Amino acid sequence: MSRRKKNGKREVVWRGVSVAEGAAAGRVLRVHGGAREQVFRATLGAQEARREVRRFRAAVRLARRQLRSLKRRAEQRLGAEHAYIFEAHLLMLEDRKLLDEIEEYILSEHSNAEWAVKVAGDRLLSIYAEIKDDYLRERSSDVEDVLGRLLVALGGGEAEPRGLTEDAILVADELLPSAAAELDFTHVRAIASDAGGWTSHTAIIARALGIPAVVGLRELYRQARTGDEITVDGLSGEVILHPSRETVARVQAEARRSRPRAAEAAGDEGSAAHAPLRTADGVEIVLRANVELPAEFGGVARYGARGVGLYRTEFLFSQRDGRLPTEEEQFDAYSRVAALAGEDGAKVRLFDLGGDKPGANLQEAERNPALGLRAIRYCLSREEVLRTQARAVLRAAARGRLDLLLPMISDVKDVRRARRIVEEERERLVAEGQEAGPVRIGAMIEVPAAVLVADKLAREVDFFNLGTNDLVQYLLAVDRSNDSVADWFRSLHPAVLQSIERALSAARAAGIPSLVCGEMAAAPAYATVLVGLGARDLSMTPAAIPRVRRVLAEVEAGFAESVARECLECATADDAEEVVRVRLGGRWPQLFPPKSLPAPKSGGYNSEEVEHASPTAP
Ligand code: PEP
Ligand code: MG
User: What Cα–Cα distance (Å) separates residue 219 from each residue in 177, 195, 334, 618?
Assistant: First the structure.
């Protein structure tokens, strides 16, 4: 693995799965997972409580030592202006009032130290939340950092700081959306994480924001230290720790080369970007935008999206540190999305919490979150959450065109219950003299059961959104965020293709619209297969629209159908990928790399155009 030397340190080269293109050189900013530490309450005897106070004091001493050494390191490497933050953190750990409060709680409540830190910390944070002054209120993140450090120190470990440099390259074990949402992405040059997959949430966000990202790096997080020099190449999947000067120069040149390419993808289209898209044989295809972060909103108009095909509302949680957004906050957010989407409208998805999504700290820790109380199940079991969201959407729908989308539907019964609740809230709004706009209700088709009962579901909802990310995950029993099973995440698996065709034809038979909004739609080759399977409406991260548009404008729908038919006949995903490679590669060679290139880790396409279709197409 090691190559050359620099400042006594050897270059260490890692190869992972590239999930967002581009390249960058910078300094490591280590971010631990991001999931808030789970803290449990333990009841102690009086003597144990006194011992617990001593354990707490030792943890405070450890945390202080860590902070002093971090401060020294930051001063040396980054200058005094970057080190003040640790001074502030140290002062917090000298604050007798906070420390006494924690110790008194341990002794009076016979509590373990972790729980006492959480109770005192929550109290302190609630005071910060009330502060009117923006600057002071924002300091609460420092309080959280210090509390997190204390909790880690109680376990004997070391917490790392956040937000040090302007050329930060995030290095995470697994970058969860809750952590991602806390970070200021304007300063993030690239992301490198040990775990993660093509359709993991963070990969989706990285692509949407144009940040190069490589996942599946296994041990990088353990070896990298905040402040270390690092390079990330989102095309080759190469990440180099302690790079030599030549390596930095090479990667910087690659970064300069890849930037204009992305800009060109965006700007080249001119007015064509906004003209209706037709295939070469005249079939109209609608391209819409998937959005979540406000940073993505600009892309909707820029890339000529016909409205918003999927608005992932979970972001509203992570922005508020896991707190449920109020009706007014939601009303503002949905009104903004309605204005953004214009007359083509936006499909607002009910909170799809749990699993790989943010908001987990509202929920109990689950043994198997992918199969747990998530998405529609969470909404139905916390009816007040659903009612608040429904009211906010209905009110915003009076200002612009909005539809409501139900996530992870597996049973018609869930649709009926959700529909009834939405109708009740509509009646209440009217009784209160408030305006409520017309809202169509659709189902995400992303669970195998929904495909099997698609004909029944189609009679109960107004439209289908096919979520291929979860459909692949649940059909093939492959965790979409786990790089060690990335080879099994196959978008062109015959079971996936049959399911897509079946769901689309159920919608057609029932006379309701359907769209495909999973990551598959964002890869031109896969988008062609989707059109061949009968899709006429695709929704994707806005930045992907130009390249999908370019290819679909040249494809005949009849040709796409014959490719899809051939894929449906295949026994394996490998065979289907070969069909696509052979049938499309002749006309669009840029979609596929020469076969002589080293095979990507997950054995799929490795081209400029389809490189990011799925873990099978890195
Ligand atoms: C999907 O599952 O394909 C989808 C579009 O939703 P998400 O990626 O938010 O789960
Ligand atoms: Mg989904």
Answer: 21, 10, 41, 20
